[in-house]
C-alpha cells in the first residue's frame, strides 16, 4: 500500500456553530482537534438562520438547491479527504437523502460519521443510510452498540465500519468546589424525550434528605421545539414541580454557556442524570462529556449508557422503574464511597475519549484511506 506520511487536509460537512445542536458542537470540536494536530481543515456548514463567523467555514450548503449541492461537493473535493456528518434531520430531501447526491460528486476518499443508527428505521431511512455507507470509504460509529446494529440490521459492508469514540474535553483539574446543596444535573438542549419528568418525580421522594439536593436543568430549549411550541414543554415541567410541592428544589437555567463554563458546571454536580426516553440511542455527547468531567452518572438504559457505564462509572436504571431511579440517586447522595468509586472510574475512562486522542485516530484513518486511494492510481 502507498504510504501517505503527511497529515491530510480535511473537508468537513455538517451543521456547525453557531447552530445550536449536538452535531454542530461535535463538528467544531473535531475541527479544532484536527487543527491542533497540524491538519488543514475547512468546513461546509448546513445553512440556517445563524450566520457563522468561524474562519474555516468556506461555504454553506443550502438544502433543496441542486446548484448548492454540486458546489458543496466541489468544496469538499479541494481537500485530501471529506468527512460527512450523517444525521437524518440536517440535510435536504426526505430523511436527508440529498447527502447521497453530495457524496456522488466526491472525487476524494470520504469518512461518514453516523450519529444515529436506528434500531427500527423506516424502509427509506434504511436505504438512505445504506446508500451513504455504499458511497463512503469508511463509516465511523461512536459505540460498539452502533457497530453491531449496523452489521446486523443494515446491508452495509462490515469491513467499512470502525468505532471511534465521541471526543470530549478532559478538564485539567479533577476537583471543583461544590455548593452546599448537592446538585443533581441534567444538561443539554431541552425538549420532549429527555425524560426530565422522571427526575422531577424522583425529587419528591428525595426531599427528606438532610442535604436538600437541588435538581438543575441547564440548557436552552431546542430551537426546533421553540419554533413549534414555544416554551410549553419547559412550562409543563415547572408546573409539575409546583404541583409536587418541590418547586424550591427544581431549577431551570436556560443561559448559553461556553464549553469551559459547561465543564465547570458539570464538575460542580454531585451526580449527572441522563433520564432519556430513548431506548435506541447509540451516541450521547452529553454522556461522554459527563464521564470526561469525572462525575458519577445515573442514566436510563439506552445502549450507549449501558456500554459506557458498564465498568462502574455510573448506574443504569430501567426506563419503567421509578423506584430504581430514586434508589440510585439516594445511594449516590448519601454514600460518599459509592459516589467516589464511580467518579474515579469516570476519571479512569476520561483519557480514552480526550479530543487529542480521538483526533489522532481520525488522522491515522485518513492517512490510511488516502494512501489506499493513491495506490490505485
UniProtKB/TrEMBL annotation:
Q: Which residues form the Glycosyl transferase family domain?
A: 177-345
All copies of the Glycosyltransferase subfamily 4-like N-terminal domain together span: 22-167
The yes or no answer to whether the keyword Transferase is present is yes
Superkingdom of the organism of origin: Bacteria
Record's keyword terms, sorted = Glycosyltransferase, Transferase
One example of the protein's molecular function in GO is: glycosyltransferase activity
Q: InterPro entries given for it?
A: Glyco_trans_1 (IPR001296), Glyco_trans_4-like_N (IPR028098)
Q: What is this protein called?
A: Glycosyl transferase family 1
Amino acid at each position: 500500500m502507498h504510504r501517505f506520511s503527511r497529515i491530510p487536509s480535511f473537508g468537513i460537512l455538517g451543521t456547525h456553530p453557531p447552530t445550536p445542536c449536538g452535531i454542530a458542537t461535535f463538528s467544531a470540536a473535531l475541527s479544532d482537534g484536527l487543527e491542533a494536530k497540524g491538519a488543514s481543515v475547512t468546513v461546509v456548514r448546513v445553512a440556517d438562520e445563524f450566520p457563522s463567523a468561524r474562519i474555516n467555514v468556506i461555504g454553506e450548503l443550502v438544502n433543496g438547491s441542486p446548484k448548492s449541492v454540486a458546489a458543496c461537493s466541489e468544496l469538499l473535493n479541494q481537500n485530501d479527504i471529506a468527512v460527512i456528518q450523517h444525521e437524518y434531520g440536517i440535510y435536504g430531501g426526505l430523511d436527508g437523502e440529498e447527502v447521497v447526491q453530495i457524496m456522488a460528486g466526491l472525487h476524494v476518499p470520504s469518512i461518514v460519521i453516523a450519529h444515529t443508527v436506528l434500531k427500527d428505521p423506516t424502509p427509506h431511512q434504511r436505504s438512505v443510510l445504506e446508500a451513504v455507507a455504499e458511497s463512503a470509504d469508511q463509516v465511523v460509529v461512536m459505540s460498539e452498540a452502533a457497530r453491531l446494529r449496523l452489521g446486523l440490521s443494515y446491508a452495509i459492508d462490515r469491513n467499512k465500519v470502525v468505532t471511534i469514540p465521541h471526543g470530549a474535553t478532559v478538564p485539567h483539574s479533577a476537583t471543583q468546589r461544590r455548593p452546599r446543596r448537592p446538585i443533581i444535573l441534567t444538561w443539554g438542549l431541552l425538549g420532549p424525550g429527555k425524560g426530565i419528568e422522571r427526575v422531577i418525580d424522583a425529587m419528591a421522594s428525595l426531599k427528606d434528605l438532610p442535604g436538600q439536593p437541588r435538581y438543575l436543568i441547564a440548557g436552552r430549549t431546542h430551537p426546533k421545539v421553540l419554533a413549534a411550541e414555544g416554551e410549553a414543554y419547559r412550562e409543563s415541567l415547572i408546573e409539575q414541580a409546583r404541583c409536587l410541592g418541590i418547586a424550591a428544589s427544581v431549577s431551570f437555567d436556560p443561559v448559553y454557556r461556553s464549553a469551559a463554563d459547561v465543564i465547570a458546571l458539570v464538575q460542580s454536580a454531585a451526580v449527572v442524570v441522563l433520564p432519556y426516553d430513548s431506548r435506541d440511542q447509540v451516541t450521547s455527547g452529553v454522556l461522554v462529556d459527563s464521564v470526561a468531567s469525572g462525575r458519577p452518572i445515573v442514566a436510563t438504559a439506552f445502549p450507549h449508557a449501558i456500554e459506557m457505564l458498564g465498568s462502574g462509572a455510573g448506574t443504569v436504571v430501567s426506563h419503567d422503574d421509578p423506584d430504581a431511579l430514586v434508589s440510585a440517586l439516594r445511594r449516590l447522595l448519601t454514600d460518599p464511597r459509592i459516589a467516589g468509586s464511580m467518579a474515579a472510574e469516570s476519571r479512569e475512562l476520561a483519557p480514552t475519549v480526550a479530543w487529542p486522542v480521538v483526533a489522532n485516530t481520525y488522522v491515522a484513518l485518513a492517512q490510511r484511506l488516502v494512501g489506499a486511494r493513491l495506490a490505485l492510481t
